[in-house]
Write a structure and sequence with these properties.
Elements lengths: L1 H16 L4 E3 L3 E8 L2 E5 L4 E5 L2 E8 L1 H10 L2
Antiparallel strand pairs: 1-2, 2-5, 3-4
Length: 74
């Protein structure tokens, strides 16, 4: 089971690094989210820092999965 799960996670990581989202009906989606350019502040040095646009992996659970968890965890 461990080898199967590790192979699955490796496939998900490879797909995301290649720019492809991974969808599992009834469970959720591993997606890539774009973060826009933003201005931040370094308060210790009192300077402005520009954070460039970047992409981060994210997981979005399916609505049916969320509903099942809410139903059983009270």
């Amino acid at each position: 089971v461990q080898k199967a799960v590790e192979a699955f996670m490796e496939t998900v990581k490879e797909s995301l690094t290649e720019g492809r989202n991974v969808y599992f009906r009834g469970f959720g989606s591993f997606i890539i989210k774009r973060r826009a350019v933003k201005t931040a502040r370094n308060i210790s040095k009192n300077t402005v820092v520009i954070i460039p646009e970047h992409f981060v992996p994210s997981f979005k659970p399916a609505e049916t999965f969320v509903a099942q968890v809410k139903e059983h965890v009270k």
